[in-house]
Design goal:
single chain, alpha+beta, two-stranded antiparallel sheet, 2 helices, 8 strands
Length: 128
């Protein structure tokens, strides 16, 4: 007898996107949110280290609800040694990951993980 199917915690389009990118990722469903850990995520030249783990937290109600911010571990700094703007807080609700306080415009039922990752990429490429 086979095990019952695991219920989907992400829309199929988001799973397809993660697989298309070829990232090494883990999905952790928790009460009130789903966490996506992207391992060995490459960063632009403005940062040290150049590779980090990236955490995206999808709140209850996603994709109607805005996933807001993102998190990194280990700490990421600018090459000058300074923390990037609004990225100097270690969030106890995310196991002390470095929180990047970024609040983009979210279009409910239109935006998805692909558009969220595009906004993360834009923020990182800004190098601030």
């Amino acid at each position: 007898m086979s095990a019952p199917p695991i219920p989907a915690v992400l829309p199929q389009a988001d799973l397809d996107f993660l697989n298309e990118k070829g990232w090494q990722y883990e999905i952790e469903p928790l009460p009130g949110e789903v966490r996506i850990y992207i391992r060995n995520f490459p960063l632009p030249e403005a940062y040290s280290p150049r590779v980090t783990d990236l955490l995206i937290r999808l709140p209850f109600g996603y994709p109607q609800s805005n996933p807001d911010m993102f998190w990194t571990k280990p700490d990421v700094r600018l090459l000058s040694g300074a923390y990037p703007t609004r990225a100097d807080y270690h969030d106890p609700s995310a196991d002390s990951w470095q929180r990047w306080s970024r609040h983009g415009n979210w279009r409910p039922a239109t935006d998805n993980l692909r558009s969220k990752m595009a906004s993360v990429k834009r923020e990182l490429e800004a190098g601030i």
